[in-house]
# Entry
Amino acid sequence: MTAADPATLSGGKPAAPRQRAADVAYDMLESMIVTLQLKPGTPIVEAELVEATGLGRTPLREALMRMSTNGLVVQLPRRGLIVSDIELAEHLTLIETRRVLERLIAASAARRATPQQRKDILIYAKKMVAAAKRNDLKAYMQADQGLDHVIHQACRNPSAVAAVIPQVIKCRRFWYAFRHEGDVEAGANCHLMLASAIADGDAEAAICGAEALMDYLELFARKVIDT
# Structure
């Protein structure tokens, strides 16, 4: 699906190098949670995840431990692990916090990305725009996840990335759950604005791109909450 540092295949398509099994498991579980295949409140049944993903118990357990730390799954007495709820009341404060981190990550990525990462960032953003135009939500979500992975590696700030990842995933799930309220093409264009600035190495423009994306997510969230 996606990778932290994609190499580029012929034809200009980013391709993932071999990932650790636990990272593959994390990406797969993230996609299942974000796209509501695992709905909020759903109990985590290890045997079912093994069957659904084709992965072993060990990488799945490691991925679930990370998700528990991130608040994507929660441990309840006598119920075990369940998928966390979508908290409408807290979502705007989540975006407020994410905005600060995204500004830092965007500026850092613009300054520190390698030439290959700059190319891959643009490729993923353009894939989002193309997917939005043809209303291919699966391709849109995969490209979104891929774009985040490359930007996060390019910024070379593990602390900021560790802090923002749970917020990114929760925002992505919120958007997917209420996507009928939003403009997919507008969201894709915000991502392209951000990606273009990073690819150009323009830190100030990258901050503006991050702000535009957070503005889009905030307006979307307010529309959902006020409905």
